[in-house]
Amino acid sequence: MFPHPAERGIPMLLAINIGNTNITCGGYARDGKLAFSAKLFADSALSSDELVYKLVNMLELYGVSPLELDSAILASVVPALTPRVREAIGKMTQAPLMTVGPGLKSGVRIRMDNPAQLGGELLCAVVAALRLAQPPLIVMNLDTAATMLAVDAGGSIVGGAILPGPGLALDALVRNTAQLPQVELETSPKALFGANTADSLHSGIVNGTAAMLDGMAARFAGELGAPEAPVIATGSLPQSIRAACRTPIRYRDTLILDGLFAIWQRNARR
């Protein structure tokens, strides 16, 4: 349970990450303690007024008033939603808003062809991961796509890979075949060998995704020259897949929000 508002103390930072599937929000006290986290469906058709309504009701659900917010920080990979969320925050609170991108210091060097192409949420995930483990390390973000990033011994992002996420893979199979049923990915398969169509599909998606992540993690670790490189993951990675992976995975649901707080902390005026 999150602490009662009276126990949190104010002021509070609102961290928002706009992903392809969800808008994830978190409230942080100045000491970095997470007061609440929540997810809204990322509907690109929403107006700024509709977003205000959803955000205010989300805050109310956790006993937070917009008046408690004195700072905000935003990361986004959905350009269509970004200006409307910015406008909604401006209507909801007078708190100054930072946006992850050029001009903000992250403390992480990006050694890629075009650093500007790296999604803000991925940078945030790496920033937070580096607070949890020493590099070299591997960071995974599972959303609509499964993105993996390699961080070298110096703490620099040196590259990555993008793969279909398990939900997307399942939807594509069900949509493009005649007799494959929808299955629940949050539960573990009954066995590796499915005895019927549904169980076979369930095993294939869960165990197949786990094998893919295991294989990619091993290749990343080999390329980094660090066979024991920690793997830190976030996003919509079902527990069933995490359990099926042979690679030790440290999972943190709020990794991107934690990174947003860390970037805000680095750039805030004292």
How many helix segments? Answer: 8
Number of strands: 10
Poorly predicted regions are: 1-9
**What sequence of helices (H) and strands (E) makes up the elements?**
HEEEHEHEHEEEHHEHEH
User: What distance separates the N and C termini?
Assistant: 31 Å
Strand content: 15-25%
Assembly type: single chain
Describe what you observe in this structure:
The structure is a single chain. The chain is α/β, with parallel strands linked by helices and 270 residues long. It is built from eight helices and ten strands. Residues 1-9 have low confidence and may be disordered. 39% of the residues are buried. Helix 2 crosses helix 3 (82-92). 37% of the residues lie in helices and 23% in strands.
What's the helix and strand layout?
Layout: H1 5-8, E1 12-18, E2 22-28, E3 34-41, H2 48-61, E4 69-76, H3 82-92, E5 97-99, H4 120-132, E6 137-142, E7 145-151, E8 157-164, H5 166-176, H6 197-224, E9 231-235, H7 239-244, E10 249-251, H8 255-267
Parallel strand pairs: 1-4, 4-5, 6-9, 9-10
Antiparallel strand pairs: 1-2, 2-3, 6-7, 7-8
